[in-house]
Automatic annotation (TrEMBL):
In-chain residues carrying the UniProt-annotated modification 4-aspartylphosphate: D54
Annotated function: Part of the UhpABC signaling cascade that controls the expression of the hexose phosphate transporter UhpT. Activates the transcription of the uhpT gene. Acts by binding specifically to the uhpT promoter region.
Domain of life: Bacteria
A Pfam family per the record: GerE
UniProt-annotated location(s): Cytoplasm
Boundaries of every HTH luxR-type domain copy: 134-199
Response regulatory domain span: 3-116
Protein name: Transcriptional regulatory protein UhpA
Amino acid sequence: MINIILIDDHIIVRSGFSQLLALEENIRVVAEFGSVQEARQKLPACKADICIMDISMPDESGLDLLKEMPSGLHCIMLSVNDSAVIIKKALELGAKGYLSKRCNPLELIQAVKTVYAGGIYLMPELMSKLVADKQDLSQTLTKREYQICELLNTGLTAKEIAEKLSLSVKTVYVHRDNAMSKLNVKNNVELANLFRLQE
């Protein structure tokens, strides 16, 4: 049995999702919460496998709660906002799935089953957005800037990259700084996060 928790401030959304999930023999909704604060208080007592959570809630963002999820509870984020930036942020924070509120019932069920089996589920149209965003990123940077950023993301130091590409360390730093400026990131960690989903 796959036990589900629903977190959404709209009762009608929770009710609709609950009814859809109840149609599946091996899925049951064990708890529903209407705010991040309520979920934060009551979540530890719930024994569930998957949490389906809205990102936009009146008291706090679902992304804030995502950071605090107990290990073993996998989250599928739900949102009307399907920008590549938000999808990436959710995945970086540990979400195992991302659904648009425009998803059809079959996608909801598929997402639950995929995540329960240990996979990650993104609606095909959202995956297309990430792929398009990857292309935008490679087009924003020069070929050398992109190459250096990818190598930084593998854990190589500027010195190691310089040796590998037969460049001076100073040149590596110049390309890295130019890339960071173009991508509006402040440090190597933010740069790595941006490239993590580009692979």
